[in-house]
TrEMBL record:
Subcellular location: Cell membrane
Membrane topology (UniProt): Multi-pass membrane protein
Name this protein carries in UniProt: ABC transporter permease
Any one annotated GO CC term: plasma membrane
Keyword Transmembrane: yes
Transmembrane segments annotated in the record for this chain: 21-42, 290-310, 339-360, 380-398
GO molecular function, one term: transmembrane transporter activity
Keywords recorded for this protein, A-Z: Cell membrane, Membrane, Transmembrane, Transmembrane helix
Listed InterPro entries: ABC3_permease_C, MacB_PCD, Macrolide_Exporter_MacB
Family: Belongs to the ABC-4 integral membrane protein family.
Length: 415
């Protein structure tokens, strides 16, 4: 009952100094809202960006030959040169690597091809990529016209082609754009029938993506390579609930066995984790959160000092009241409890308002970058309330201790 009475006394004191208490609670609310709001916005933007990164390969990894040209010396010794991975080796891997992953084998036939359609032609900087029927699925590409390659076209090496958006725009200008499907183009000395045109997808840099490329069946690329060794890449796409490390852990020993790598020796192939994009995003968002915590801490520190000052003034103003309570039997512990409850109550009011404002502000900012759904940073919202209580305790302890130590006789004489 005494705790309840102290709580009521605290509320009465807050009402008696409503403007002063409201200003203090507002400062605390600003500090908490800056903390919760910024982190909510960061989480919302991160979720949106991660969704976009998945279309750029953030949920994939690639098996490929080691680039021997970039291998220097190690300890004064030339590092071992490994032969490139053969087409048959990748085929055996695909047969043995059974799971929920999606695999796509591809190879670049040319990086500087010239593509022709009638009198129109491109600059000699077009990439020709030999692909299978899963390649564009893992690239998250969408079709503007036509369709994807069929498994039969891939295995038979049919003379069909899919154009990237930039290539189609060059060969079929927008002003006279027609449906290119069914038309024939010339590339690498061969004629191809267009079966599909991709929508513009964008890229991380000028050397990536499908916009400035044409895609042909990988068997056709092998035929046109005239027996020369192509540099093959096998991209492995993960399911939504899959993690990259276990998948790589299963893929590595299978490829080592196919390549006949001896125990203790390094891999004769390379696994490139495309998830490095997502890892960079996590690092950046972590740094932003540290900045948000710093901003919130500075604001809350100012609020704590303001609250302590208000509580000191309150103790001075209520010195006579404290003397009366002590004369009636209130112990120093009860007096201290009353002022602590008052300080914590002010902070909790400010904390609740700050969490609510931060949640609203953060989601509004997140929506500006097309984040889907509401973001509920539960742990940070809970932390906001914990910080509010801590500020109340820290700011209110010294004034409460001062009030509890007042001499009742001197307090009753105070004017």
């Amino acid at each position: 009952m005494q705790f309840l009475e102290n709580f009521k006394e605290g509320l009465t004191s807050i009402k008696g100094n409503l403007l002063r208490s409201s200003l203090t609670a507002t400062i605390i609310a600003i500090g908490i809202s800056s903390l919760v709001g910024i982190i909510t916005a960061i989480d919302g933007m991160k979720a949106s960006i991660e969704g976009n990164l998945s279309s750029l390969g953030a949920n994939t990894y690639t098996l490929r030959s080691i680039n021997n040209n970039s291998r220097g010396n190690e300890g004064g010794k030339a590092r071992k040169i490994f032969p490139p991975i053969k087409y048959a080796e990748f085929q055996r891997f695909q047969e043995k690597f059974q799971g929920e992953e999606t695999m796509s084998l591809s190879a670049y036939l040319s990086w500087n091809a010239e593509i022709k359609f009638g009198s129109e032609k491109t600059n000699p900087n077009v990439r020709i990529v030999g692909i299978d029927h899963n390649y564009l699925t893992l690239e998250d590409a969408e079709f503007a016209y036509g369709r994807d390659l069929t498994p039969n076209e891939v295995s038979s090496g049919a003379p069909v082609v899919i154009l990237g958006d930039a290539i189609a725009s060059k060969l079929f200008p927008v002003g006279q754009r027609i449906n290119p499907v069914g038309k024939f183009i010339t590339a690498y000395g061969a004629s191809f029938r267009i079966v599909g045109v991709l929508k513009s997808k964008g890229a991380l840099n000028n050397n990536q993506g499908v916009d400035r490329a044409i895609m042909i069946p990988i068997e056709k690329a092998r035929m046109l390579s005239a027996g020369s060794q192509l540099n093959y890449n096998l991209k492995v796409g993960l399911g939504a609930a899959m993690e990259i490390e276990p998948s790589i852990g299963r893929a590595t020993p299978i490829m080592r066995a196919i390549r006949q790598d001896r125990p203790g020796e390094e891999n004769s192939f390379e696994i490139k984790r495309d998830q490095s994009l997502a890892e960079s995003l996590n690092e950046i968002s972590g740094q932003l959160k540290i900045g948000a915590i710093g901003i919130g801490f500075i604001t809350i520190l100012g609020a704590a000092i303001g609250l302590m000052n208000i509580m000191m003034v309150s103790v001075t103003e209520r010195t006579r009241e404290i003397g009366v309570r002590k004369a009636l039997g209130a112990t120093p512990a009860k007096i201290k409890q009353q002022f602590l409850i008052e300080a914590i109550t002010i902070c909790l009011i400010g904390g609740f308002a700050g969490v609510l404002l931060g949640f609203i502000f953060g989601n509004v900012v997140a929506r500006t970058v097309d984040a889907k759904g509401l973001v509920f940073p539960v742990e940070w919202m809970f932390l906001g309330f914990v910080v509010s209580v801590l500020v109340g305790v820290i700011s209110g302890y010294m004034p409460a201790a001062k009030a509890s130590k007042l001499d009742p006789i001197e307090s009753l004489r105070f004017e």
